[in-house]
Please model this.
Amino acid sequence: MFRSLWFDGRLRAVLAQVLIACGFAGVVGWLFWNARHNLMQRGIAMGFDFLGEAARFPISEHLLAYQPTDSYGRAFAVGLANTLYISLLVIVVSTVLGFLLALARRSRHPLVAAAATVYLEAIRNTPLVVQLLFWYSVVTLNLPAPRQALEPLPGVFLSVRGLFFPSVSWTGDLVPLAWAAGAAVVLLGARFVYKRRHRAAGARGWPWLALAAGLLLWGAWQGQVGLQSQAPVLRGLNFLGGASFTPEFSALLLGLTLYSAAFSGEIIRSGIAAVPRGQWEAARSLGLRPWTTLRWVVVPQALRIIVPPMTSQYLSIIKNTTLALAVGYPDLSFVITTTINQTGQAIEGIAILMAVYLSISLSVSLFMNLYNRRINRTQRP
Model:
């Protein structure tokens, strides 16, 4: 009996996995016990009780409301919101800029192609932290004072205090509009599910869209919702009103975007180049213009090659936000580092940081894999 079990390859594989898992759990347990023992000898208690204590440090930029009297848990939430905000902006802008760089690299104009090549090679072969420090020094040292601020566009001002631009805010009661928006989403979702289940390919979608738009207009009318714009105005030594990007945020956004766009551009260019030349020639024989060919023929096929490496690029962007420490932007790593310095809870802080970034990375990977599976799915006849 034991001889037959031993020669069972499947059983041996399961047994090997169990032994490896037990060994890994034993190593983790020993590390935990050793760290706990050493910390207790130094009078440092382990646990996450400190999350409810007052943080007692300011956060210069925050999307969520925050005061130094708030808890460490609230400070972590503020840092996480800042991290997600900068990551989303960099991903969107660098993808668009990368697509333009890919087209420039493939341009037949020698000057455009050479300029794109020089940019890509220079950015990709320079450390990111050096670029961040360069842009931070440019923003903080070489820009004029607010009274002599640059105005590249009407109402947009660039000075040593940051970037100031007009803002748009809602007025009125947003509750009816929120309910109407929810009803519109449910309506369009029901229409999508019905179309998928009943294969109603020829069903017209504009009546549903018109009904959803009508719901939104009704909600806006009920709450007297409107839009109000506010432009920044120079008052004293700084601008008041409108929206603004601080020098730290501007340097981080500019540095990460330009750096990530170089890698995204090469990924997109390789995906476009992988599409067979015959596809271009076939589209040209049908009389399609180059831009129409690129949009409807080449890019849909290139996405199957572009999406997998772009997933890794997006994950790199999220992880590169930890370099915000170099320019002083208060992201999650900045908040956790400050917390560790104040409380001494290094293991807990690093564990939270690892868990958060792991969750974000797995979520991005899941979304991109689902999208990749959708565009690679073979259509049924």
